[in-house]
Amino acid sequence: MVTHKIEKAEFRVLTQKKRLECTIGDMLTYGKRFVLFFNKCLNAFAGLTCLCLQNLRFAESDFVSNILVTCKQLNYLGFLNCDTKSWITLQVEHAQLSELSIVNCRFDMVELTWLPKLTCLAFEIWIAFNEPPLSFGYVPLLEVLSLSNVAYNRHKMVKLSTFLGETSVLDLKLGFKCEKIWVQPECLAGRQAHVFHQLRILRLFGIPEGYDLTWTMFFLEAAPSLEELYMTVRVKWKWMRR
């Protein structure tokens, strides 16, 4: 398969149990099955352009890296509710990858080391650490970025100007699946302001109830090219008895 020119070849894992039903044992079982299948079909996987994995726990910590090495033609790679038996630093290097989605996964750190064609990244529902478990290396074409964080009151806020490094995205989505706003308002000037200099679309989803919107003003001040702004507020519903 890898020797043929294929425009699109997709492989998607569908497990018997849905994400919220899966135990750690289920994920280990599904992970073992996938690894066995993967190792028997290396030539087929080498020709894939799209790979979507979900509900898998890998016993071998280096297996995720093996996927990147084997699947050289990938344009899209998605992980949903995946992890390894021991927490790892995942270094992502790939010449062709243009879209990467990591949702509800448990890696100690994800380092986007070298992704020259990456244009779209979703890194969602991470559990807050002292520092965000994501770092940006060489991602010169990154335009669309979606981030959401499960942050509690004890967790530190994140300075986006530091976190996003040298990136300069056009479309930014921030999700707040948490007790508090996890983004630190900043007074940006000079080099720091370049992070939002090209921003055209900003989406803020699930803002916790009780926060006013003054903290969002720094986006408006730092993003002179902003054209669209979307916001939703998460309301805690209370049952009322008559």
UniProtKB/TrEMBL annotation:
Protein name stated in the entry: At1g61320/AtMIF1 LRR domain-containing protein
Domain spans labelled At1g61320/AtMIF1 LRR: 42-236
Range of residues in the leader sequence: none
InterPro entries: F-box_plant, LRR_At1g61320_AtMIF1, LRR_dom_sf
